[in-house]
């Protein structure tokens, strides 16, 4: 017998759902002989790649982890006292294992379907409460991308609200973090806003054209200022004031809200989230209640369900799903949910006493350090400080000697100005660390030092009384209950059990690409070599990261066909915005700064026009044909009409309707002929990789959603990563960074950290490494196969709205549910009923109202696709019962969906369908039932009665679940 040795455990076989036998069956259902035939009938020949992807050979999981351990090992984990908004911290192991490393938390989607996301929503309410309590503000959102972009959102919000005529100046204290100033300048310039950077103690607040100001608390150099008088005077001059604050310091310092601030922004990183070489971290945004209707980002609020029970949901959701286009002040369509959850759980686990003790210990050791350094004759400049000392040495030469000595012993300080040194202590600093720092200075200064620098048992808080916090915080029982590990573990598991994630079933969201986030891809994220680096540490300490960035940029260039990539944008919307800034800068560099017209198809996601407006462009909408494609005649007419001022076209490919438009090359050429550039939205790259590319199609810029196509988990609504690729003549305009001059790029930063969410880039690095070029191509093919299989099974039950020339869809399709309205059935009813079958709904009413957009991805098996199709076919039969009068139009199984356990356990069941039909509508649900924890939520009630923080826990304990009598039906 002849044996044939070959690799037995290929990662691509783990990543793709269907095996060869299943593929053969699916092809028969579709009506083609091979995957190759299907691809030929789906993807236009004119845009097909003529070569295979030139990527390294695929590695097994074991081989990848061994190789990556070597790469990560090049990073040097030093003790970092650099500060500047990033601090060492300790994520409790119980939270790391049960949330950060738990697919039940990291594979869930944005909580648009609130009934099956109550766990995450409660965790985000906790986070919002933490932010509101510590900042002293009246309302907070569920996080923004980072501190720099949160500050920029505040600038935009208050610029839109000022009543002062021709107000286009914004004061920025020179003590604001340098990376924040960099992002502010980037965001202000396209809108014609002038930043006035200076000393808050001397600025003329009556300056003509000034509409607002931002202050840092404590300052970047460590000084703590009382801003009460500044804020009062600013308000008298009609200005809005933003305070960028350190959350941990606010356990001891008077809150910005008590000083009168209009908004407070910052970063919750030091609440247990690793530095990760810059991200991801949850930026926070809190403001006054008066601005609740215009606050950027997501707000989680409390409402009631159909039974009258309390339930959480995304409040004011229309701002999220239907971003204002031509009048946009923000393009935010994501958050940092997973990181917000971590920070919120850190507060739940430690409670106000422990968190305050961390702050006390940090400040005590900072006092000890200041005293010891003073005894060595070293000048310390900060009068009032929390955790940061600013030292002035005698000469630059002496400072260089200190830097050499410190780095030789694995210690990083901040070096700035001519002779200044900054030292920021943190939660993990021990007395021995202080002694080590003092010893370093003693050696450099040639002085004796025998002090052990012990943590004192008592210290005097030497701040002025006005700076000492008197108000309480984190008083809610949730922050004063779960302090033992056992109770904390149970609380997190209790919340996890309320949420549906990829650990339960397919999440078939069109345009969101909820695919496998493989465990092997996730493992390196929590390694200290990845998580413990400060983003502003010397570059020679991050050679492992440098290799990761270099390889990933090279591979993404190969996938896209572009010449250069920036990894900095930390969301898809940030990538859009960064791409448009590149185009804007290119035109300006060629004396074409007047080009400001962005052509955008009518079907585009709302972030497209919002990003264009933020980049200083004017939006001109291009019509769609009845088939859902771009109206080429209308596009050509408008490109010619605006030729002198045409900046760009923003286009999604395949289209938002899930079709490979045959005219795409002609469309791109038309834009180029009229002097414009083409920006491609990369939301649908999962249908391009290995088969075509943005450069092949004719695009000049494209953002890539690494949290979609390249396997970074959605994390319940974030983190996201949105790097951009560009053609060669645009490469010099990619984002730079004021602190770390990455690759010599001169443009302004779009995110606070130089490489954005650096610590999760290993996930995409792992995916590409283990798939290889052929594996990536195969994934795209299977994604298209899976989509067309669902289409073939469902099209006789639900009309498929758009298809390509040969009747095929791309990687997703739109199911038309509008005809059911005649029977009183809304698309929302189908979405809610799917929960009873154990599924998250597809994308609802986008890009066409009354439809469902389905994307199965390549990671789902034929068995799972069949279960989903069976659920959809069964729901169609339930709709038919209503259409034919066999079920009441208002009192039926769809209108009451989803069904909770409490709803069906009622003694007097009077509904016209059985309990069994309600909760076990398919045989598979008996073996694996996911129970929604609340009934259908009343969205309008939640918006009318906006409650965005934790409410009394006693109200829950004292009230049994209410059940709605059958004859009343759910309250809409």
UniProtKB/TrEMBL annotation:
Q: Which residues form a coiled coil?
A: none
SUPFAM superfamilies in the record: PLP-dependent transferases
One Gene Ontology molecular-function label: pyridoxal phosphate binding
> Which residues does the UniProt record annotate as the domain Glycine dehydrogenase C-terminal?
779-899
Instruction: Give the sites modified to N6-(pyridoxal phosphate)lysine.
Output: 708
Q: Domain Glycine cleavage system P-protein N-terminal: where?
A: 13-440, 472-740
Q: Any idea which UniProt keywords this protein has?
A: Oxidoreductase, Pyridoxal phosphate
InterPro entries assigned to the protein according to its UniProt record, in alphabetical order = GcvP, GDC-P_C, GDC-P_N, GDC_P, PyrdxlP-dep_Trfase, PyrdxlP-dep_Trfase_major, PyrdxlP-dep_Trfase_small
GO BP term (any one)? glycine decarboxylation via glycine cleavage system
**One Pfam family linked to the record:** GDC-P
Q: What is its EC number?
A: 1.4.4.2
Name the reaction it catalyses: N(6)-[(R)-lipoyl]-L-lysyl-[glycine-cleavage complex H protein] + glycine + H(+) = N(6)-[(R)-S(8)-aminomethyldihydrolipoyl]-L-lysyl-[glycine-cleavage complex H protein] + CO2
Write down any Gene Ontology CC term: glycine cleavage complex
Cofactor or coenzyme needed: pyridoxal 5'-phosphate
Q: Looking at the record's lineage, which domain of life comes first?
A: Bacteria
Q: Does the keyword Nucleotide-binding apply?
A: no
The record's annotation in PANTHER family points to: GLYCINE DEHYDROGENASE (DECARBOXYLATING), MITOCHONDRIAL, GLYCINE DEHYDROGENASE, DECARBOXYLATING
Q: What is this protein for, i.e. what is its function?
A: The glycine cleavage system catalyzes the degradation of glycine. The P protein binds the alpha-amino group of glycine through its pyridoxal phosphate cofactor; CO(2) is released and the remaining methylamine moiety is then transferred to the lipoamide cofactor of the H protein.
List the HAMAP family hit by this protein, alphabetically: GcvP
Q: Which family does it belong to?
A: Belongs to the GcvP family.
How does the annotation summarize its subunit structure? Answer: The glycine cleavage system is composed of four proteins: P, T, L and H.
Name of this protein: Glycine dehydrogenase (decarboxylating)
């Amino acid at each position: 017998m002849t044996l044939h040795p070959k690799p037995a455990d290929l990662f691509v076989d783990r990543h793709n759902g269907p095996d060869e036998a299943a593929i053969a069956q699916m092809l028969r259902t579709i009506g083609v002989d091979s995957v190759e035939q299907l691809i030929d009938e789906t993807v236009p020949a004119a845009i097909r790649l003529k070569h295979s992807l030139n990527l390294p050979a695929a590695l097994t999981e074991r081989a990848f982890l061994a190789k990556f351990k070597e790469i990560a090992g090049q990073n040097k984990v030093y003790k970092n006292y650099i500060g500047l908004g990033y601090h060492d911290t300790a994520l409790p192991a119980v939270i790391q294992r049960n949330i950060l490393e738990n697919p039940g938390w990291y594979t869930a989607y944005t909580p648009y379907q609130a009934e099956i996301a109550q766990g995450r929503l409660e965790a985000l309410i906790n986070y919002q409460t933490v932010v509101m309590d510590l900042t002293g503000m009246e309302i907070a959102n569920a996080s923004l991308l980072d501190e720099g972009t949160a500050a920029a959102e505040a600038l935009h919000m208050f610029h839109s609200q000022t009543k002062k005529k021709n107000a286009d100046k914004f004061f920025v204290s020179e003590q604001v973090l340098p990376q924040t100033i960099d992002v502010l300048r980037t965001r202000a310039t396209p809108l014609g806003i002038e930043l006035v950077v200076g000393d808050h103690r001397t600025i003329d607040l009556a300056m003509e054209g000034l509409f607002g100001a931002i202050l840092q608390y404590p300052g970047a150099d460590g000084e703590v200022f009382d801003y009460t008088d500044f804020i009062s005077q600013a308000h008298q001059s009609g200005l809005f004031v933003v305070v960028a604050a350190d959350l941990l310091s606010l356990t001891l310092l008077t809150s910005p809200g008590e000083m009168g601030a209009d908004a407070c922004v910052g970063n919750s990183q030091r609440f247990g989230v690793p530095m990760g070489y810059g991200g991801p971290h949850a930026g926070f945004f809190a403001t006054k209640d008066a601005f609740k209707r215009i606050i950027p980002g997501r707000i989680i609020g409390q409402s009631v369900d159909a039974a009258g029970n309390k339930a959480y949901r995304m409040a004011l959701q229309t701002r999220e799903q239907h971003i204002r286009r031509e009048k946009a002040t923000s393009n935010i369509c994501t958050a940092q949910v997973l990181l917000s959850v971590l920070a919120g759980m850190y507060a739940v686990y430690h409670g106000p006493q422990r968190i305050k003790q961390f702050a006390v210990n940090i400040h005590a050791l900072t006092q000890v350090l200041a005293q010891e350094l003073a005894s060595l004759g070293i000048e310390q400049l900060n009068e009032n400080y929390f955790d940061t000392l600013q030292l002035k040495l005698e000469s630059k030469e002496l400072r260089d000697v200190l830097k050499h000595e410190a780095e030789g012993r694995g210690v990083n300080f901040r070096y700035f100005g001519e002779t200044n040194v900054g030292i920021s202590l943190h939660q993990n600093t021990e007395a021995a660390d202080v002694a080590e720092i003092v010893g370093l200075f003693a050696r450099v200064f040639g002085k004796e030092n025998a002090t052990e620098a012990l943590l004192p048992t008592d210290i005097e808080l030497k701040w002025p009384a006005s700076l000492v916090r008197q108000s309480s915080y984190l008083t809610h029982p949730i922050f004063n209950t779960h302090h033992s590990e056992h109770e904390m573990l149970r609380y997190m598991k209790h919340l996890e059990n309320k949420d549906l994630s990829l650990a339960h079933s397919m999440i078939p969201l069109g345009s969101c690409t909820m695919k496998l986030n493989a465990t092997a891809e996730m493992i390196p994220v929590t390694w200290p070599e990845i998580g413990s680096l400060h983003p502003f540490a010397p570059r020679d300490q991050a050679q492992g990261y440098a290799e990761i960035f270099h390889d990933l940029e090279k591979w993404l260039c190969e996938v896209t066909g572009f010449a250069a990539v920036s990894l900095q944008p930390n969301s898809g919307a940030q990538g859009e915005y960064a791409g448009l800034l590149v185009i804007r800068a290119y035109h300006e560099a060629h004396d074409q700064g007047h080009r400001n017209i962005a052509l955008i198809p009518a079907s585009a996601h709302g972030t497209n026009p919002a990003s264009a407006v933020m980049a200083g462009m004017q939006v001109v909408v291009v019509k769609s044909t009845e088939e859902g494609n771009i109206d080429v005649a209308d596009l050509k007419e408008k490109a010619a009409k605006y030729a002198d001022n045409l900046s760009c076209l923003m286009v999604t490919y395949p289209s938002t309707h899930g079709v490979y438009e045959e005219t795409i090359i002609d469309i791109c050429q038309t834009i180029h002929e009229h002097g414009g550039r083409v920006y491609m939205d990369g939301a649908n790259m999962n249908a391009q990789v290995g088969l075509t590319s943005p450069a092949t199609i004719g695009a000049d810029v494209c953002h890539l959603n690494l949290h979609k196509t390249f396997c970074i988990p959605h994390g319940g609504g974030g983190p996201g990563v949105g790097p951009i690729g560009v053609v060669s003549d645009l490469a010099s305009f990619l984002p730079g960074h004021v602190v770390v001059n990455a690759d010599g790029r001169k443009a302004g930063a779009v995110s606070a950290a130089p490489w954005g969410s650096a610590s999760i880039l290993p996930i995409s690095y792992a995916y590409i490494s283990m798939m290889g070029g052929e594996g990536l191509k195969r994934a795209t093919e299977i994604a298209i196969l899976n989509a067309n299989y669902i289409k073939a099974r469902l099209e006789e039950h639900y009309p498929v709205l758009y298809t390509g020339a040969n009747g095929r869809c791309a990687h997703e399709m739109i199911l038309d549910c509008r005809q059911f309205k005649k029977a009183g059935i809304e698309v929302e009813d189908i979405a809610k009923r799917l929960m009873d079958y154990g599924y998250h709904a597809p994308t609802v009413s986008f890009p066409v109202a009354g439809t469902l957009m389905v994307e199965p991805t390549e990671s789902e098996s034929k068995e799972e696709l069949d279960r989903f199709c069976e659920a959809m076919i069964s729901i169609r039969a339930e709709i038919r019962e209503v259409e034919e009068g066999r079920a009441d139009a208002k009192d039926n199984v769809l209108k009451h969906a989803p069904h909770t356990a409490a709803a069906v356990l009622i003694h007097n069941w009077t509904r016209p369908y059985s309990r069994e039909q309600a909760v076990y509508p398919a045989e598979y649900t008996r073996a694996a039932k996911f129970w929604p924890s609340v009934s259908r939520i009343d969205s309008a009630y939640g918006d009318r009665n906006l409650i965005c923080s934790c409410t009394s826990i006693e109200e829950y304990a004292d009230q049994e679940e209410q059940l709605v009598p059958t004859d009343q039906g759910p309250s809409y």
